[in-house]
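FAQ

Q: What does a record look like?
A: Structure on top, sequence underneath. For example:
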């Protein structure tokens, strides 16, 4: 697929913005992983898609470096105020629904792609970590942060806005294609 076709597919799935991703602009930073270790999202060491279950930074780096090109996708939502938790959750849910649907469609063209999302995987209500292998290893995904990516930096390096002003929230994910 060329980028125009990819962009049209992304828009048909409800993403607000789509830009090409040069995979050599992706930096995996130990300090981002250290933020994960603070467990502010309460997922650290609790699922296969978050550290340490998703692998070491070196293992993530090895996976990412197999790719040269990808796409960044983003869903921007409106908030009533800075503390609008419902608006944040609504936008996140829209983004994840689009992310899963897009991932399914892209697999037809890029069976070996790497999908990296926003937030942790929500494929299963309860993760099997660490007692059993992931139930859906081909469908589970880690977040950009779990991989050590500073999302704002990846967006800036690929000419995608990260901040849209007060009253807006953006969720960003990527698909590494080839």
């Amino acid at each position: 697929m060329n980028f125009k076709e990819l962009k049209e597919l992304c828009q048909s799935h409800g993403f607000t913005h789509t830009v090409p991703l040069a995979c050599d602009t992706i930096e995996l930073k130990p300090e981002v992983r250290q933020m994960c270790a603070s467990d502010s999202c309460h997922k650290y060491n609790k699922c296969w898609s978050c550290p340490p279950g998703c692998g070491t930074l070196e293992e993530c780096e090895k996976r990412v470096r197999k790719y040269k090109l990808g796409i960044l996708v983003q869903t921007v939502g409106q908030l009533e105020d800075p503390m609008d938790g419902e608006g944040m959750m609504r936008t996140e849910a829209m983004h994840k629904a689009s992310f899963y649907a897009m991932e399914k469609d892209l697999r037809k063209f890029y069976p070996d792609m790497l999908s990296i999302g926003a937030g942790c995987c929500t494929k299963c209500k309860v993760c099997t970590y660490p007692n059993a292998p992931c139930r859906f290893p081909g469908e589970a995904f880690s977040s950009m942060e779990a991989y050590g990516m500073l999302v704002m930096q990846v967006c800036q390096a690929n000419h995608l806005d990260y901040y849209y002003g007060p009253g807006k929230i953006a969720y960003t994910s990527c698909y590494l294609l080839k």
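Q: Is there anything notable about this one?
A: The first helix runs from residue 3 to 12.
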